[in-house]
From TrEMBL:
The lineage of its organism: Eukaryota, Metazoa, Chordata, Craniata, Vertebrata. Keywords: Calcium, Metal-binding, Repeat. This is EF-hand domain-containing protein. It holds the Pfam family S_100. SUPFAM superfamilies: EF-hand. The keyword Methyltransferase does not apply. The keyword Signal does not apply. It comes from Staurois parvus.
Amino acid sequence: MSNLETSMVLIMDVFDQYACAEGKKDTLTKEEFRKLMEKELPGILQSGKGKDDCDKLLKDLDANGDSEIDFKEFVTLVATFTFVAHERFQKVAKK
């Protein structure tokens, strides 16, 4: 597989690993989402206030209002963080 294909599979695997812990297997509950953020994106929560930020982020991502994160909503999160990180790296590289 190419690097991009491998990255896509890894994103799917991370989502599935946390989504299957409780509740529906195709969504992240509030607790599953918090655990994913703490373990997979610890720098994001460290720069904020932790649990409160995680709750706000879940609410912001929850496009359909079901209090859970589905895969489409999760990919939106990953894409947004990737975009922001890319822009920051570009600014640093220009200095």
